[in-house]
Amino acid sequence: MTAAEIIELITTVLTLAGLAYLLIALLAARAFRREPRSPEPTAWPTVSVLKPIKGMDPRRYAAFASHCTQQYAGRYELLLGLSDPADADVLAEIERLKTEFPTTAIRAIACGERLGTNGKVSTLSQMVPHALGDVILINDADILVGPQYLTRIAADLAQPNVGMVTTPYAGRTSDKPGLWARLEGLGIATDFLPGVLTSRLLDRGVRFGLGSTLALRRTTLEAIGGMTPLLEHLADDYELGARVHAIGMRVVLSPEIVETYVPAYDFEGFWQHQLRWARGVRDARRAGYVGLAITYAIPWALANVIATGFALPSFTLLSLVLLARVALALGVGVGILRDGQVLRDLWLIPLRDCFGLLIWAWSYADDTVVWRGEHFRLKRGILLRP
């Protein structure tokens, strides 16, 4: 075979593999949509919601407020952990929150000590001893939730042998987002979540956690050693869920959808955030991450069109890939996440997938990550100072 024929064969195989992935992901999304909601438990546990905070952004107050309007039959408290206890902007917003929601138990916890390279886990480690609840629920500072959030999470956690509940999330951009924010939000809805659902189908369950929600009983957290063992890990949410799974308990992906805020990224911000996520997944799921390349079927199909000299069968294959990719984007982004931004940005999917493949390849180039302006070196999932 000539070099051109070898390239044609490789791109054809990769395109077919990508198409197969898209079809499996569609089945995974269908299976998830058909899952019934958990019945309400006979007793409602006291829940401590822990949100680690570093600075403020335009939508963070709305995220805090959404946790203060919960229609929950049990007791709950909202703990806000301050990595900088002297941050006047954050303190002012917390006082505003207490004034606006006087019936909600809200506490600010000073967490100024840096215990490890992972600043978020350092904050959480200092927050946990202050939590009064039987259930510890951790979510990122910008996560915005619906009024039934705690009720539905508690119902899922009450099911047999469930050790952790985590949730899908949609990425909400500003009213006039730039290209890079659109690509980030589109990636969450049409790339990241389909991958999670496919993993759930193939693994017959979820074996990791997502930072959008990490809900577990205090006894479960103690059984896995608490937060301290994660102080040097980059993918702390993934690792927390993996440790719950390792002790023989189930990690459940709840049908409850939450929202995260997508900043107005410039190219550098988008690139660094995507690389940090990619390298975290690379080290957490080394074997699975290698196979991630085939999920980007559109770039492979385009390469196949070129490799075949624009032959008609290659265009047929490209059409099938585009059809399956759009169906998956709509099925997950709109059907599950109810994210109308997917309709707005559907035309960007080919560009998003090309960037996805490029980021996947570049993630192997070195082991550096940038997180909130700090530079680290990554070694098997552990954050090291350069």
Automatic annotation (TrEMBL):
GO terms for biological process: glucosylceramide biosynthetic process. One of its GO terms (cellular component) is membrane. Keywords: Glycosyltransferase, Membrane, Transferase, Transmembrane, Transmembrane helix. It is a multi-pass membrane protein. The chain crosses the membrane at residues 6-29, 289-311, 317-337. InterPro entries: Ceramide_glucosylTrfase, Hopen-assoc_HpnI, Nucleotide-diphossugar_trans. This is Hopanoid biosynthesis associated glycosyl transferase protein HpnI. It comes from Terriglobus roseus (strain DSM 18391 / NRRL B-41598 / KBS 63). The lineage of its organism: Bacteria, Pseudomonadati, Acidobacteriota, Terriglobia, Terriglobales.
